[in-house]
Amino acid sequence: MSLSRAELQSALAATPLFEDKTWRLSPEAWPLTADDRAQLDAIGAACLDYHRALENLYLRSAADKNLLRNKPLRAPWVADYLDRGKPPRLAAHARDSRNRGAFPAVLRPDLLLTDDGWAMSELDSVPGGIGLTAFLNRLYSETGDILGAGDAMVKNFHAAVAALRPDMRNPLIALVVSEEAATYRPEMEWLAQQLQFLGLRVFCLDPDEIFPLGSTLCFDVEGNPEKIDIIYRFFELFDLGNLSLTRHLHEAWEAGEVVITPPLRPYQEEKLGLALFHHHLLQDYWAETLDRRTRALLSALIPASWIVDPAPLPPGAVLDGPRVGGRALTDWRQLGAASQKERDLILKISGFHETAWGARSVVLGSDCSREEWQAGLDIATGDAPTNLHILQTFRKPRRATHPLFDAEGVAAPAQGRLRLCPYYFVKDGVATLSGALATFCPPDKKIIHGMQDAALVPCRLV
Predict the structure, then answer these.
(1) Which positions ≥6 away from 449 have C-beta within 8 Å?
(2) Beta pairing class for 389-393 and 345-349
């Protein structure tokens, strides 16, 4: 079964969730086979295992402890990389023993469908699209076995967040959206509203609506202060410095009055963690910490990645990185002389910066001029003392086919490239796949993200 263009347009127009947003429409959800579903389940478990291993790596590096059981391996430089440019209080908070085992409640890898299978370009800990995907799941629910159909995705999101206060039956949860992330406020308001319909205490708030009362955080409900038990923060950690709430947020957490998810642990939001997975000095650590199946899956998923660190090398040393003209690099800026084929690389800032989300810092070397590529390299090396960049092999998405409505409203097969964003909600140490958003872009687009000429659809099991 499929949806008509009129049905889709009517449903989208009836909700403020999509105000000022447009995209191509499709009569069908994206099909996933049983094998696809099994692989996505395995990817979710691997992403959580990666986070556990990254936490251990970061904490042992910060304490300059040995990383291996029976062999010497110390890497204090790992913590230096992950803490670079962060306020000291935030770095100290990340290392606080009370945060041990605190991981994001929602994990969303960005998966590109390539000729060699899935490629994971990013692992997002503060992902947008939760409300959007849940709405589309419901909208397409009569067209097949939708992944996360009905209220399933909404309920699983709440279950994962509410589980952070096991002492409470119905904790008050505030979905806090900063001005920087205001584009996503309508979908978070919609999500809060759906949970309220289920009798749950969930509210979407602006940071300025929250105020301290003693050691607690509250907001006003008809003239009365209501205590917040859990904050689901929908803002990146670089944005903390812009919020008047920040000091009170730390104090309430330290007093045990509020739980915050995703945790205020900036190393969990650095893309360079993916480059650490490939770092040649850390291979023994990952081999000892992750089981063979997980390590093999992550190795296949994560493209070859390097940290752009312009620190001077001793004479005769070369960089662990791509080659130019068959020769190893001694300076990252030498990549500026790479041919277009050799520039089939993605350059992007690692995190803790306003350009670190929404593909705003991404430079694809093979899709820009030599001058633009050199400018990107100059920015990356110049910013390194406070904001590191990573370099990643570009794995081109393959062409796929999916029906789309044309300008006359006729549905016909169309060519495009796919990014799949599965949403995993973490509860009791398990990452549960609860929905997935497929972004189907025109075939001429190299970097896939939400855009007017892309289609956004949920996924169905076939």
Answers:
(1) 358, 359, 419, 439, 441
(2) antiparallel
Please compute the mean of the pLDDT values over residues 354-381 and round it to a whole number: 89
Check if the beta carbon of residue 297 is closer than 8 Å to that of residue 290. Answer: no
CB neighbourhood size of 169 (10 A): 7
* Residue 182, SS3 per DSSP: helix
Please name the amino acid found at residue 22. T
Helix, coil or strand: residue 350: coil
Peptide bond into 262 cis (omega under 30): yes
Is residue 450 scored above 60 in pLDDT?
A: no
Quote the pTM value: 0.95
Average pLDDT (205-212) is 96
Which of 165-168's residues contact partners 24+ apart within 8 Å by CB, and which partners?
Answer: 165/229, 165/230, 165/259, 168/229
- For residues 174 and 229, the answer to whether their CB atoms sit within 8 Å is no
Please give the angle made by the CA atoms of 279, 284 and 287, to the nearest 5 degrees.
100
Give the single-character DSSP code of 357.
S
Could you tell me which residue, 42 or 361, shows the higher pLDDT?
A: 42
End-to-end CA distance of the chain: 12
* Residue type at position 317: A
For residues 375 and 428, give the distance between their C-alpha atoms in angstroms, rounded to a whole number: 46
CA distance 245 to 235: 13
Work out whether the CA dihedral 440, 22, 348, 341 comes out positive or negative.
positive
SS (H, E, C) 129-140: CHHHHHHHHHHC
State the DSSP H helix or E strand holding residue 392, giving kind and residue range, or none if neither.
strand 389-393
Cα gap 280→21, rounded to integer Å: 44
Tokens 């940290």 found at: 307
Q: Secondary structure of 68-120 in the HEC alphabet?
A: CCCCCCCCHHHHHHHHCCCCHHHHHHHHCHHHCCCCCCEEEEEEEEECCEEEE
Q: What is the pLDDT of residue 105?
A: 97
| One-letter amino acid for residue 1 of the chain | M
Query: What are 420's strand-pairing partners?
Result: 111, 438
